[in-house]
TrEMBL record:
NCBIfam families the record matches: PRK13768.1-1 (NF010339)
Keywords: GTP-binding, Hydrolase, Nucleotide-binding
Organism domain of life: Archaea
Family: Belongs to the GPN-loop GTPase family.
Organism: Thermococcus nautili
Protein name: GTPase SAR1-related small G protein
Amino acid sequence: MILAFIGTAGSGKTTLTAEFGKYLEENGYSVSYVNLDTGVRKLPYRPDVDVRDDVTAWELMEEGLGPNGAIVRSYDLLVPKVNDYAERIRELDGRSDYVLIDTPGQMETFLFHEFGVKLMEAFPDALGVYLFSPEILRKPTDFCFALFFGLMIDLRLGITTVPALSKIDTASVDELRKYLDDVEYLTARLKLEPSTQGLLAYKLCSTLPELAPPTRVLYLSAKTREGFDELETVAYEHYCTCGDLT
Ligand code: GTP
């Protein structure tokens, strides 16, 4: 089973990769780890495949590039090797129960760069986990944004993607769950929004049941391991029941 953790900078991808991996190992599974972040200095897990063996963003910065330029350039340099990486990940998949992929710190590097898109084309059965943290959920339209973003990742990378609220130990989740677990409730609430964005979100959310299977949202904490059993179940169901994640 290949799981790719995708999310904005700081959403918790690396910590979750390490902690969920430990959890799986403690439960008797063999786990391989893939680091795709050229900009990370220290990892809390030992990667079996690591893009930094080929290039790091900081060595490119030492050559004079700025931080964003260095990151983009690092993935430009990795594009010719994308098939090698796919082959190495496939090998890991052949000998481990789980392969956990920790994607680049900046999500756009993965979603907008040829390297990320081409790499995931090789793994259409992988499961994407889109991590978003509670602080982005401030108003009803934000919930619609988060749910749609999971679908956008699916569209872009061609992999089933489940939305996952990360760092739930930092927020009171009950209120957030009302919106995330019940699209009808969210849609009804959005109908009351007077703004243009409210109308847009209302229309988008009204189409969600038609556009997407009723995927459940995961609630995860890499600190307390809350939700890890659910993530394991969702991964199992993805692989064993052909993508029915209701
Ligand atoms: P970059 O790759 O560096 O962009 O970030 P990332 O998405 O890999 O996030 P990372 O795992 O580095 O976590 C960012 C910060 O959030 C760190 O300070 C983590 O300790 C913290 N963090 C990650 N997961 C959790 C969590 O479940 N709960 C809490 N409270 N903090 C978390």
